[in-house]
Amino acid sequence: MNPHNDASAQARYEVVRGVQGLSAAALRFIDREGSARGLHRSDLQALHALEEAEGTAMSPSEIARALSLSPSATTTLLDRLERAGHVDRVHAVDDRRRVNVTMTASAGAEARSMFLPLAEAMMEMMVDFSDEEIAVVGRFLEAARRTIDEMGDAAPAAAGG
To answer: Helix, strand or coil for residue 61?
Structure first.
């Protein structure tokens, strides 16, 4: 992307570059912290999806869709998380063919130990910003997240997967 010559376009370009840098830094943090705990990035993504479900069990196929994984890759991931004690897989009472996946309390505690220090550092960093500035940043981040989700939803499936 090549910014136009006007200041407004240049400022927008710098924001896009900043978002790219933030995304890269977040992935480095996740990879580093996950690696220290023996967790892959996809493990953390699955646990995040389960956390977002707010205690509601997810099926393996729902997890596969949320992470854009094949059924076999999802099975491997869930096997790994179950062995580590991070998820439980239980057959549904009303249909024994259906499997429900939930995050364990120990996985929640591990996630908090990993992400709480980052959240606290972010909260401390924000003391330098006014409430109005924080509100604008919050609106921007939500709009950016929606844009990324919409672009992902509209993207064609990768060949072979």
So the answer is: helix
Start-to-end Cα distance in the chain: 28
Give the whole-angstrom CA distance, residue 67 versus residue 62: 9
Dihedral (CA of 113, 48, 160, 27) sign: negative
pLDDT tens, residue by residue, 78-128: 999 999 999 999 988 888 888 999 999 999 898 899 999 999 999 999 999
Domains and CATH numbers, the chain: 8-152 (1.10.10.10)
What letter would DSSP give residue 94? Answer: S
- For 34-63, write each residue's pLDDT tens digit: 999 999 999 999 999 998 888 788 999 999
Distances 143 to 64, 137, 148 between C-alpha atoms, Å = 25, 10, 9
**What is the distance between the alpha carbons of residues 138 and 141, in angstroms, rounded to a whole number?**
5
Cα torsion 55, 78, 28, 156: sign: negative
Q: Which tokens go with 155?
A: 């993207």
